[in-house]
Design brief:
This protein is α/β, with parallel strands linked by helices. It has 2 domains: 164 residues, Cobalamin-binding domain (Rossmann fold, 3-Layer(aba) Sandwich); 59 residues, no CATH class. 36% of the residues lie in helices and 16% in strands. The chain has 9 helices and 11 strands. Strand 8 and strand 9 form a beta hairpin. Helix 3 crosses helix 4.
Length: 242
């Protein structure tokens, strides 16, 4: 099954220079959430054809056309608050070109406003509430097997009668080392940071060494996610180069 994972455009514009300036003014605004890499790795290992796109600085039409050309069966879009004004029209444009594509949102903004999103944005079929490490692969598995898509823990959906389908949060993944590492599976370009440690790996090692407090999602509880920095480093090319 073809699956698109997307960090969407920051603004609805065709002006590439405008987007590049936004990126220069705030470098954090265009970075891909690390969770998307882990999700991509899981979906690839399940046998799906996965494309992970960072379109934060991509002009509007070019972004939509690239996504539509893939003809995805499932599109997962990250949505934090600064992206809220572009996600709905972007999803609508993709649905116009790929009407059979199911679209799921994830991210902090989507997590805390999943009911409002499903009520107001008909192009969005699902919202991953909280971490999607278990829930998104399960949604993809059921879609691929043509099984019932309701009642998936961690996934809020719009039922056929328009009501909310929500059975509660997915179980937390407390050991990040149990998840597949994206580097061997995806063509990731690294930026150097510090003593030869790639930026993305540096962030992952920092979170793994100290543990990371998960945000309290609706219906969930705060928990700690802990990874193994040494194991992660072994899977990332160039991690030990000084």
């Amino acid at each position: 099954m073809r699956i698109l994972l997307l960090n969407p455009p920051l603004r609805r514009t065709e002006n590439a220079a405008e987007l590049q300036k936004m990126g220069r003014d705030d470098e954090d605004c265009f970075r891909v959430p690390i969770g998307l890499f882990t999700l991509a790795a899981q979906l690839i290992e399940m046998g799906h054809e996965v494309k992970l796109c960072n379109h934060a600085l991509t002009p509007w039409t070019a972004s939509i056309e690239e996504a539509a050309a893939m003809r995805p069966a499932l599109a997962g879009i990250t949505c934090v608050s600064r992206q809220r004004m572009t996600v709905a029209p972007w999803a609508r444009a993709l649905k116009e070109r790929c009407p059979d594509c199911r679209i799921i949102l994830g991210g902090v903004h989507a997590t805390f406003l999943y009911q409002e999103i499903l009520q107001r944005w008909p192009e969005i079929a699902h919202v991953a509430v909280g971490e999607a490490d278990l829930s998104l692969p399960e949604l993809a598995r059921r879609m691929d097997a043509a099984e019932d898509l309701t009642g998936i823990p961690g996934i809020a959906s719009r039922a056929d009668d328009g009501t909310l389908d929500w059975v509660g949060p997915a179980a937390p993944v407390t050991d990040l080392g149990a998840l597949p590492v994206a580097a061997p599976l995806l063509p990731i370009r690294y930026h150097r940071h510090g003593a030869g440690v790639p930026v993305q790996l540096h962030i992952l090692l920092f979170a793994g060494a100290l543990g990371s407090e998960g945000a309290r999602a609706p219906g969930g509880s705060r928990h700690r996610r802990v990874g193994d920095p040494a194991a992660a480093a072994r899977h990332h090319p160039g991690a030990h180069q000084g």
